[in-house]
Amino acid sequence: MNSITRIETPFISTAVPTANPTAIPTKVPTELDAQLSRIDAGIARILRRSLHGETLSTADACLLFETGGDEYRALLACADQVRHNRVGDSASFVITRNINFTNVCYMGCRFCNFAKSREHSEAEFLSFEEIADRAEQAWQRGATEVCVQGGLHPDIDKDFYRNLLIAIKQRVPDIHIHAFSPFEIWYGAKKARQTPDAFLRDLKAHGLGSMPGTAAEILDVEVRKQLTKNKLTTEAWVEIVKAAHRVGIRTTATIMYGHVDQPRHWAEHLALLREIQQQTGGFTEFVPLGFIHYETALYNDNPDQVRPGPTREEHFKMHAVARLMLQGQIDNIQASWVKMGPDVASQMLRAGANDLGGTLMNESISRAAGGSHGQEVQPEDMVAHIHRAGLRAVQRRTLYQTERVYPQAESQAAFCPPARQIAVAEGF
Ligand code: SF4
């Protein structure tokens, strides 16, 4: 492994991001300019606007999602350039451990194969002692964070989420607890008969550091109805995320794509996240999560109507269009190795993304749905994947403070094809 330099200042500001046109080069790099001059004039106009830091509309995003051939390759190249403009030539990862404290859940989301009934032979509900043990083991292995989520177990009482935080903090006071989806917050607040704001304020006081913005799926009423009858509504997801931001708890933002959704839903989802960020500034990053279909009722009951996850090209487009749509608002775009595999995820780093997420140690939700990319990526492999993409590797903390920088060996420079060259080489 390369030598390690510890630096103190964050490499990406955690302050509320705002568009900063003075940081955006007014001149488009020559090679990219030539590439844009050879494609459809309408698409080129949209891409040039994004290179100058301008805000794209949902209609613009829909057109970009429809691109193919040279226009598609130009989209990836522009996303790579905007990534460079906004966050420079670093890409990051965080050492974290997933702790899924229970898989018992009765919400019946049809895309989920993680949930079990309490009578199921594989049903699990970890004690606070076991959860604290796992957090301590993670800390001893260098983790700065634990990511704690679980099903909505009927035995969860009004104090459960608070007591879970207390158990971890008593054992490992300095670990960052990134925990509880907006759905879990909705459930806990109902049990405690509190408003989301009051419930979240109490959790923050007991050690909640930040929240995953999961359970978003697609923030569209009709699509959500097909995914699950009982799941949190779009309005409730937005309200809980805004409540978290109001009380000073930052969250990620996610999308789950590639099932019954269409590009217009993706564009509207991105526009809604951007609008929330303009109001609150509380999102740390955007994490596209491709649907994994193998073991899900959603796909297996309707294989003619439900897509088996996104295509490879759709993965690239999602990361690229998100970079352009969200620039100046949410400037960290994460590529999920759990969903795409580490090799494809690291290619996203040259198509708009700048983060590979967590090492995880115990990934189990995607595995239950038939995901095959393993439970853990070692930190040295994260560094190698980032270097292979031609970027400087940074181990970050949850809120994007720099933990360690891994200088890139000079020899790596020869091996850093930008997305447009990857696209040509791989024929898509
Ligand atoms: S996605 Fe979450 S809420 Fe839905 S069934 Fe699975 S564990 Fe329960």
Description:
- It is globular and about 60 Å long.
- The longest helix is centred in the first third of the chain and has 19 residues, at 69-87.
- The chain has helices at 30-37, 41-51, 58-65, 69-87, 128-140, 160-171, 182-192, 196-205, 221-227, 234-246, 263-280, 297-300, 312-326, 337-340, 342-348, 365-368, 379-388, 419-426; strands at residues 90-94, 96-100, 145-149, 176-179, 208-211, 250-257, 283-290, 355-358, 392-396, 402-406.
- The strands form two sheets. A six-stranded parallel sheet has the order 2-3-4-5-6-7. It has a four-stranded mixed sheet with strand order 8-1-9-10, covered by helices on one side.
- It is of the alpha/beta class.
- Mean pLDDT is 89; it is low at 1-22 and 413-428.
- Strand 3, helix 6 and strand 4 (176-179) form a beta-alpha-beta unit.
- It has one domain (90-426): Aldolase class I (TIM Barrel, Alpha-Beta Barrel).
- It binds iron/sulfur cluster (SF4).
Please give a handful of descriptors for the protein shown.
428 residues, alpha/beta, TIM Barrel, 4-stranded mixed beta sheet, 10 strands, disordered N terminus, disordered C terminus, binds iron/sulfur cluster
Residue fraction in strands: 5-15%
Instruction: Catalogue the unreliable spans.
Output: 1-22, 413-428
User: Whole-Å distance between the termini?
Assistant: 33 Å
Largest sheet: 6 strands, parallel
Helicity, as a percent range: 40-55%
Structural class: alpha/beta
- Principal-axis shape equals globular
| CATH structural fold name | TIM Barrel
Distinct compounds present: iron/sulfur cluster
User: Radius of gyration over alpha carbons?
Assistant: 21 Å
